[in-house]
């Protein structure tokens, strides 16, 4: 089963950037992805072209579960087959919507 990945939100914590990043707050938010970007996971553990490799590592577990077609009993989400995940960048995380595409 295919999975649609949509960038919902980008966060940036300038005080943490100043403390931990070489460029400080000048580094800005995630340079790899933009809000509204969409990607389709086609299967086979193949990362979609143009996707951030670091974020891929973080969210692949959830993608593989959705791609497996399992009906997950995630009662805290309104829509079956949809979840929200994020990359683990503590200074500039990106939030993703993952949704099963039932053809």
Keywords:
single chain, 103 residues, alpha+beta, 4-stranded antiparallel β-sheet, 2 helices, elongated
Q: What report would you give on this structure?
A:
This protein has a four-stranded antiparallel beta sheet, covered by helices on one side. The protein is built from two helices and four strands, in the order βαβαββ. It has helices at 14-20, 53-67, and strands at 2-10, 38-41, 82-86, 94-101. It is 21% helix and 25% strand. It has one domain (2-101). It is elongated and about 45 Å long. The chain has 103 residues and is an alpha+beta fold.
Helices, strands, pairings?
Layout: E1 2-10, H1 14-20, E2 38-41, H2 53-67, E3 82-86, E4 94-101
Antiparallel strand pairs: 1-2, 1-4, 3-4
Q: Name the strands of the widest sheet in spatial order.
A: 2-1-4-3
Tally of separate domains: 1
Please describe the biggest sheet, giving its number of strands, its sense, and whether it closes into a barrel: 4 strands, antiparallel
- How many angstroms does the end-to-end distance come to? 8 Å
> Overall 3D geometry?
elongated
Low-confidence runs: none
- SSE order: EHEHEE
How would you state the average pLDDT, rounded?
A: 93
Radius of gyration: 15 Å
Estimated helix fraction: 10-25%
Total count of strands: 4
What percentage of the residues does DSSP assign to strands (E)? 25-35%
Task: Kindly name the structural category.
Answer: alpha+beta
Number of H/I helices: 2
Give a short synopsis of this structure:
The protein is of the alpha+beta class and 103 residues long.
